[in-house]
Design a protein that fits this description.
2 copies of one chain form a homodimer. By secondary structure, chain A is α+β, with helices and mostly antiparallel strands. The first copy, chain A, is 36% helix and 27% strand. Chain A has 2 domains: 5-167, 2-Layer Sandwich (Ribosomal Protein S5, domain 2), CATH 3.30.230.10; 173-301, GHMP kinase, C-terminal domain (Alpha-Beta Plaits). The first copy, chain A, has helices at 65-76, 99-114, 121-136, 144-149, 185-190, 198-216, 220-226, 233-236, 243-252, 274-290; strands spanning 5-15, 24-40, 45-51, 82-88, 152-158, 161-166, 173-179, 195-197, 257-260, 267-271, 295-301, 308-309. In chain A, the strands form 2 sheets. In chain A, strands 1, 2, 3, 4, 5, 6 and 12 form a 7-stranded mixed β-sheet that branches. In chain A, helix 1 links the parallel strand 3 (45-51) and strand 4 (82-88). The two termini of chain A are 19 Å apart. Chains A and B meet through strand 5, strand 6, strand 8, helix 6 and helix 7 of A and strand 5, strand 6, strand 8, helix 6 and helix 7 of B.
């Protein structure tokens, strides 16, 4: 028997991970949006309620990241059925933690579950990316893919899309600080030019290589040495108040690496033990507090699953 | 007792390996230069004989790639002693197979052995790079490092230098075709601009990531998908006659990937079995022969050792 209702949790994610602009990301297991779908009697998708968005998100299903992918999916299956949608945002909008990707993935994942899985997870990626496109104006998958598949993801190529689920060391802890200020993804992206310095590009792909070698061979130190970004961070870092100070105390606490999560303002660190992850969180938050910036902190392992049915 | 004479073999290498411009390379075990050092009674290095170079290399020890590193090494140790040097070139000069790197590595490696190893292998890298600099006018290590350490090498960073010896799958066969034409490394390098397209750079670091993930997780197919170069190959490929035709027959033979070795004109392929490596060699050579280009072919496993005392 087909179900009528489903409630799912869909994780936040950290993209770029230092050098891997547009091609890397990982999911984290302590912050998740919750999405509820209920079959209705109309032939359309209706967004019934959105919480946690401070009124920022649209109720228009053709413009909301969560429902755009669902509409594409239903159209593909030629199904004229409708759903009521409740979106509970826990991942800050414009935080750099894959908020729009979580909405996009959550919508199509929940719908697919409710329809008794006509699609494999892998096949849901394109529908979710349609949703993500609405939010970021660009087709990129570095939040969508880790959010959907869980784990540490490399997007080797976009044309056609080639997703690699990377092995990673067991004791990897992620600390996140989210200063409560806003940077818009699309606006932030415009600041990056169309050309990059060849030498810097070489440095960048050396670090991408190092990061992936470190992850796949359990080399914590190499992971840390490779979390560097000579191209995007120098531009985006300036838009995050006290970024350099926060980074400094994180490294002083013993984290392996620290960088901007996505387009920021959230900042992530990776550590090889929980104690350091906790100390770093406290020290980073102290910098914000001293400078009168409200912030949230999270300590998480890498999420391996992606969305979960509740 | 200190030895008076040593003879060593030092391997050829393939750098760039598709996307990894300036940061990746591997050593191959079927082509090696041979270098012989004999302690003399002067306080200087004397190049006694060079073979296989068609008269192209200098006998001036301050300008020859093989002896420049040796001079730096002796100076560092404040040793006023001299050696006679015989250089037997087997690796084609200007072939794209790390000929100058082999000379540079061979000189310092042989000298270090003869002096009873005052330096660890790792410490020889800088001396060898001094030699390589003479040949290529740029300090890069993507042939020097694999030649010295053997195996598949990532140079994560140059400042300071950070060498990562990557694990790689057991059944990796390399086919090389060396069309007997010449491209000078320094001249070839000038053709590359100082800026690259941001989008292409992202594609490139996606492929670097894929190649390293493929190597370290024994994923032959991923290795193949990642051997792509959207930045350098489009420029350098044009200088190798019938490059596209050669590449086409290689892929048709079933190789995982095919690209330019270093700055060319040598072309390498990687395969997951020897049979394919042999077929590819024959097919690639046929293209050259049909177009009246003399060529040499080599089939090799990845060399794991680097220089060997003979």
């Amino acid at each position: 028997m087909e179900k009528n209702k489903i409630k799912i949790a869909v994780p936040a994610s950290v993209s770029n991970v230092g050098p891997g602009f547009d091609i890397m990301g990982f999911a984290i297991d302590v912050i998740s949006d919750v999405i509820t779908l209920t079959r209705n009697n109309h032939e359309e998708i209706v967004i019934k309620k959105i919480t946690g968005d401070n009124g920022k998100l649209t109720y228009d299903p053709n413009k909301n990241t969560c429902t755009v992918g669902m509409i594409h999916l239903l159209k593909y299956l030629k199904l004229n059925i409708g759903f009521d949608v409740i979106i509970e945002k826990k991942i800050g909008i414009g935080s750099g933690l894959g908020s729009s990707a979580a909405s996009a993935v959550g919508g199509v994942f929940a719908l697919n579950e409710l329809l008794d899985k006509p699609f494999k997870k892998k096949e849901l990626l394109n529908f979710a990316m349609e949703g993500e496109k609405i939010a970021s104006k660009a087709t990129h998958a570095d939040n969508v893919a880790p959010c959907l598949f869980g784990g540490f993801i490399l997007i080797r190529d976009y044309n056609p899309i080639d997703i690699v689920n990377l092995p990673f060391p067991k004791n990897l802890y992620c600390t996140i600080i989210h200063p409560q200020i806003e940077i818009e993804t699309a606006a932030s992206r415009k600041l990056l030019g169309k050309k990059v310095d060849f030498k810097k590009a070489i440095t960048q792909w050396g670090n991408v290589g190092g990061l992936i070698a470190g992850l796949t061979t359990n080399n914590y130190n190499l992971i840390g040495r490779s979390i560097k970004d000579v191209i995007v961070e120098p531009i985006r870092g300036k838009f995050i108040p006290f970024y350099e100070d926060i980074k400094k105390v994180a490294y002083k606490s013993g984290v392996l690496g620290c960088n901007i999560s996505g387009s920021g303002p959230a900042i992530f660190t990776l550590s090889d033990n929980k104690k350091i992850a906790i100390i770093a969180a406290r020290k980073m938050q102290e910098v914000c507090t001293q400078n009168k910036i409200v912030s949230k902190i999270y300590i998480s392992k890498i999420d391996k699953q992606g969305p979960k049915v509740l």
